[in-house]
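#struct-help
A.M.: can someone run this one for me? Single chain, 950 residues.
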Amino acid sequence: MRTDVFALRHIGSRPEEKEEMLKAIGVDSIDQLIYETLPDGIKLKKPLDLEPALSEYEYATHINTLASKNKLFKTYIGLGYHEAKIPAVIQRNILENPGWYTAYTPYQAEIAQGRLEALLNFQTMIADLTGMELANASLLDESTAAAEAMTLLAAVRTRDQKKNDVVKFFVDKEVLPQTLSVLQTRAIPVGVELVVGNPQEFEFGTDFFGALLQYPSASGEVHDYAGFIAKAKDADIKIAVAADIMSLVLLESPGHLGADVVVGTTQRFGIPLGYGGPHAAYFATREEYKRNIPGRIIGVTKDRNGNRALRMALQTREQHIKRDKATSNICTAQVLLAVMAGMYTVYHGPKGLKYIATKIHRTTATLADALENLGLYQLNSAYFDTIRVKTDAKAVRSFAEASEINFYYPDADTVSVSINETTSLADLNKIIAVFAEALGKEFTHLDQLIDAEEFPETLRRKTEFMTNPVFNSYHSETELMRYIKKLERKDLSLNHSMISLGSCTMKLNAASEMLPLSDPRWGGIHPFVPIEQAQGYQEVLTKLESQLNEITGFAGTSLQPNSGAQGEYAGLMVIRAYHESRGDSHRNICLIPSSAHGTNPASAVMAGMQVVVTKANESGNIDVDDLREKAEKYKDNLAAIMVTYPSTHGVYESAIQEITGIIHENGGQVYMDGANMNAQVGLTNPGAIGADVCHLNLHKTFAIPHGGGGPGVGPICVAKQLVPFLPTNPVIKTGGEQAITAISAAPWGSSLVCLISYAYIKMLGADGLRESTEAAILNANYIKERLKGSFEVLYSGEMGRAAHEMIIDCRPFKDNGIEVVDIAKRLIDYGFHAPTVSFPVAGTMMIEPTESESKSELDRFCDAMNSIRKEIDAATAENENNVLKNAPHTLMMLTADSWDLPYTREQAAYPLEYVADNKFWPTVRRVDDAYGDRNLICTCAPIEEYMEEA
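D.P.: on it. Structure tokens below:
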């Protein structure tokens, strides 16, 4: 075996194993299997035009060379991004640990108790610092979180406000520029009217439903908003505050001031800058809005034995249930980053955070004092970490950049400096030296910080925070390392076994792809530095866009969307802009097949479109006649269709080109959901099937790890006519000549993790990418064959083949008293995470093995499923006391003194021989979701409860 070919490391099965699998399926070659699976008319006529594949060693040299092209200046730009210290114990044990970064979203709570606890810590920390009752488990970035706040406040308008069509939303003129741009994007299609102004001059009228304030402001000024908020409440105007999380350690919380929603980013809690992301945003609100809060919430409940357990609360309330009535299209979070930020606060505790925040503030005050001694006028009367001075910005910039320092220059006469956790006394003297040089003056080097508090006494934080024991127990590295490991052991991730989730593509995240993320030459770059300081990034991002253009058959790419749902929204907004440019602003009908992902209709509504659902036929495919009838019916107003390919049912629909042709004939554009792109790469592409835009889940097809539910990246690739409308950024220009406003905060979204997808493509090359797709199809069809006789596959292609995934029907087992959830929980006892449950068809499982799994792992999974089928056959509807209904079985159950179940302990814990060799023990029994929703608790218990227990 060649040891320098990455594809042989990435693809799980050896060539001889593939031959055995092909034989089992009943085909002579992989070419025959692809012929029987993929419609001939959409196959690519030539190989992808990509550079030759690099070995892992060659790639390491290549990426190191590119990293050296990034200039790592000391950066004090601020604007929501600050250099932070990443504790090594967190970097090594979480960021660089596949036990944390390869986990899936915790839908199966029993095997995710560690991640859930880490997220509950995060929520508790956010609730404490913001002064709110409820926080979610993170959002994508501060700007999109602010947009979600606007949407929530619109949804909870009073009955009279809705009746009178009150649609005005006030925005503080000192909001972050990227946040204003995202708000502008979000507001127009949903009918919200933004009014930007000075809060001190705002007229509180009945034509406003909400307002957004920045605390501290983008300029660094700390305003006392208590009076503003009180007046707003008198006028029935609800308030959202975008707050710097570090400042809230010293400043009074927005909740205490009366805010209804508080949003922001936790990037400065130990997360690398990464040229813009990924970072965990936060969203906190009042409990009365719990049914409207976007994203995921972690809640406390109990398991079957009455023991405390955690799970995602209210988890079925959104897209897949509400679809076009959903309040948000959010499908992912920033779990890995939220876990890191939460652990940062666990490590430092409230006293440590106060030390850090106080040092930042004292450093800022010392700088202000020194600059005033140089004769510079400081503009901010009250501040936390940012000051502004009036001076010749061009002269200061020249000296600053010569000293490898970045400031922010709002205009020709103003320099803004934002101090961060890493700013030392030596750094402070270098900053002062720059201003002294620009002024031609001498200054005395400082040897200590002054003791000052440059904000009003009324805004000094007086309430305690983070009193829970978890924030006051793990302050040595030994203790935190053990705590992190304790939580990791409670979670099943890819480093334990295959996660065969349909539509989620849990493939290998190779170490060689991940290593550069720890390099500060990539992690230490602020997203708003001058382009010439980020040439390494620019080469990677430009090349990645080019690679994705080639893979999709399109003309342009935007990397800005930082999740799949953001990509959906971005694609539809680009289509909307295209129609408007042609005078077709009336085109607002979006056709969506009934089998589509639930985020599709939610995204369409957010883009201002009206959803019309098209039918599926008996084979699960799009009903072409129904589609044609509706396309013709709405041809004057047809904007788009949203279609997934291969379909959500795991089939390459042969009518796909006819479908896209119908849409084009009737004036619409074709949006292809890229969730199943892993079954296209190198064999076909969206351009070949006739699409105009697609989003790609880089956290699926292109190897960015799921991280327990995020980070994600969802770039859009577009045909030539849509390129001019790709999104821009208000600070660093991106996108097309007629660009829409920003989709997310950073110019290129979550740039740091784009390195992973760049590496994936560079090391696989054209042949490796195609072979990966073929292997994914081979693995799925092998599982289909091995499960034959035990489970019926609902949908197949015209020649009986599956695509890269399949749906098995578990509904007939109701006759034995067994539900699909029982199979999911029993799989835990066999050491596996369940496939996707009850989507897109209730009572089914959707299985996707990915190309990274070996034949031996596929066999273990199939052995487990076939064994479970025998257990189903032995079950009866009359007696629920069986091995499936009682699953999963914990170590505590197995080691209890008594055992009164009608099967053996061995059958419960070690149903097949292989299990004993690598047993995963769930730490709780089956959780009670209903109890948790009835008794919603989304933060750690207060200290009083622990004292009572003691």
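A.M.: thanks! The chain has a mean pLDDT of 95.
D.P.: also worth noting: The longest strand covers residues 208-215.
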